[in-house]
Each structure stands twice: as C-alpha cells, then as structure tokens.
C-alpha cells in the first residue's frame, strides 16, 4: 500500500510536458517502469494535460493506462477520455457565441491561435507564422490529422483555444480584453501564450470528473486525499490545490511552488519516479 501520512494513495495523476516527459518529449524508462509497477500493485495512474487526449495518446499507451484505470484528462480539464473506446466520457465545450467573442479579440490583437472541433480531425489555425509552422511535416498537431486556415465564418463549439501572441505587449492587450469574458478560464502558460477553456474547466475539475468515473466503473471510494498529482506550470495550480498531495517539479514557477504539498527533481532527471520511489521505500 502506498501511503503519505495516514492517507492511502489510490490515484496518481501526471501533467505531461515538463513533468512526465523530458524536454525532448521522451518518457524515461525509469518513469515508465515505476508507474507500471504501481498500476500492477493496484494504484491507478492517469494523465492531465493541456493537450487534447489524442495529442498524448502515445504516452498513455506506453503506460498501459487502458489496462488499468482507462481514463485520461485533456484540454485542461475540459475532456475526460475513455482510452478503450477513444471517446470522451466527459466534454465541456465553449459555445459558438463565446468562441466568436474570444477569436474576435485574438484576431483584433494580432494573436495567433489554434483550435479543433469535435466533428473533424482538423487543426484550425489563425496567424501566418503559426499556420506555416503547423503545415511543416512532423509538426505537433495535438492529435489532429490535417491543418486548415481558421475560418471565422464557420465557427463550431470547441473544448480549447491555444493562443500564441507575437509579443508580450500584444498578449497583454488581448489578455486584458479577454478577462472581461466571464464564460472563459484563461490558463497563462508563458508571457506570450495561454490556453482558453470554459470558465468551469481546469485540471482540478477534470480530476473530480476522473474520480467520479473511476469510482463508478471500478466500485471505489477515491477522494482528493487519495490523489497524488505532479505538475510544473500555472495550468496545474487548480489540480495542486484540489488534491491533498500536489507535487511540483523543481523548475516550476514560484506561483506553482507556493501551492504544492512538496517538490521533486526535474522532469529531465525522472522527477516523477524519483519521488514515487522515495515513497515506496518509506512505505516498504
């Protein structure tokens, strides 16, 4: 049994970029081995990412999550996917009027952005430099199969809008205007980038939906005090606050470190497995 204090850890949830994988996008063998060992021992493992689930499915497959807990969180909590069916068990999409309002502000402030719709496998991109980047062979498309230029006259509901401004000044102006929209949650990731989701979406609410699904389908009684979360950026703050045991990577910004229960070493040094193996040694 894996425990912290007197609480049994029944679920481990990891952010991906900057946490689970290295800066070179590699899942280190020691991280994989530790998480597979814990799943075999009865501890559920999941992923919570800003990416759409299809954009990180390779890591879920490497960790064999489908054979155990079977669910992952994407789009900063807006989606919980069933890995067996590859369908969303939970999906919280921004309505078309909200998408219209948000994209209007972004276009008026010369901010590039990308989004996808449930009805297709296309990444819709605004901004010539970002569009050119996404059209480059091998570019990351967040699980989508094609790229198209964003069409303001053909809007649909979407789980997430990824924003990349050309300058800090343009981002700050857009951010100030976006804050007036009460229907959205803006997850700032850097001085010029952010993710936008519905106001009631974040990784904390995503974990709440994940816990509900696990409890129903596996006849469990997991609560936030049974959850261990690893993260490194501002979009992890809600999750770090929601669970009892939130672990920040050593390189995380001060805003993240301030709300964490504890810290671990860098993602490039297998920080997730380093911390878990330390717990295993303490428990056994």
Structural description of this entry:
This protein is an alpha/beta fold. It is built from 9 helices and 16 strands. The protein folds into 2 domains: 172 residues, Rossmann fold (3-Layer(aba) Sandwich), CATH 3.40.50.1000; 103 residues, Hypothetical Protein, Haloacid Dehalogenase-like Hydrolase, Chain: A, domain 2 (2-Layer Sandwich), CATH 3.30.1240.10. It has a 6-stranded mixed beta sheet with strand order 10-9-8-11-13-12, with helices on both faces. It is globular and about 60 Å long. The protein starts with a strand and ends with a helix. The relative contact order is 0.17.
| Fraction of residues in H or I helices | 25-40%
The CATH superfamily label of the largest domain reads HAD superfamily/HAD-like
Count the E strands.
16
Structural Rg: 19 Å
Average pLDDT metric: 96
Number of domains: 2
Largest sheet: 6 strands, mixed
Task: Annotate the secondary structure layout.
Blueprint lengths: L2 E2 L2 E2 L2 E4 L14 H12 L3 E4 L9 H6 L8 E4 L4 E4 L4 E5 L4 H13 L3 E5 L5 E5 L1 H8 L10 E4 L11 E4 L3 H11 L5 E7 L2 E6 L4 H16 L8 E5 L5 H6 L2 E5 L4 H4 L4 E3 L6 H13 L1
List the keywords.
single chain, 284 residues, alpha/beta, Rossmann fold, 2 domains, six-stranded mixed sheet, five-stranded parallel sheet, 24% strand, globular
């Amino acid at each position: 049994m894996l425990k912290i204090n007197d609480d049994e850890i029944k679920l481990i949830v990891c952010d991906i970029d900057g946490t689970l994988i290295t800066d070179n996008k590699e899942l280190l063998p020691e991280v994989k081995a530790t998480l597979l060992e814990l799943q075999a021992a009865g501890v559920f493992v999941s992923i919570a990412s800003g990416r759409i689930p299809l954009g990180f499915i390779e890591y879920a497959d490497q960790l064999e999550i489908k054979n155990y807990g079977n669910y992952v969180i994407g789009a900063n909590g807006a989606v919980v996917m069933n890995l067996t069916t590859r369908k969303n068990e939970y999906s919280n999409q921004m309505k078309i009027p909200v998408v219209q309002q948000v994209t209007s502000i972004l276009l008026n402030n010369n901010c590039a952005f990308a989004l996808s719709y449930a009805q297709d496998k296309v990444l819709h991109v605004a901004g010539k430099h970002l569009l050119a980047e996404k059209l480059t062979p091998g570019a990351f498309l967040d699980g989508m199969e094609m790229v198209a230029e964003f069409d303001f006259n053909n809007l649909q509901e979407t789980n997430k809008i990824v924003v990349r401004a050309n300058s800090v000044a343009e981002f700050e102006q857009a951010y100030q205007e976006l804050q007036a929209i009460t229907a959205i949650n803006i997850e700032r990731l850097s001085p010029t980038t952010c993710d936008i989701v519905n106001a009631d979406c974040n990784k904390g609410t995503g974990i709440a939906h994940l816990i509900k699904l696990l409890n129903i389908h596996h006849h469990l009684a997991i609560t936030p005090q049974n959850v261990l979360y690893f993260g490194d950026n501002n979009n992890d703050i809600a999750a770090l606050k929601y669970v009892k045991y939130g672990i920040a990577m050593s390189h995380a910004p001060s805003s993240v470190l301030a709300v964490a229960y504890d810290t671990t070493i860098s993602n490039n040094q297998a920080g997730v497995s380093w911390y878990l193996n330390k717990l295993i040694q303490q428990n056994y």
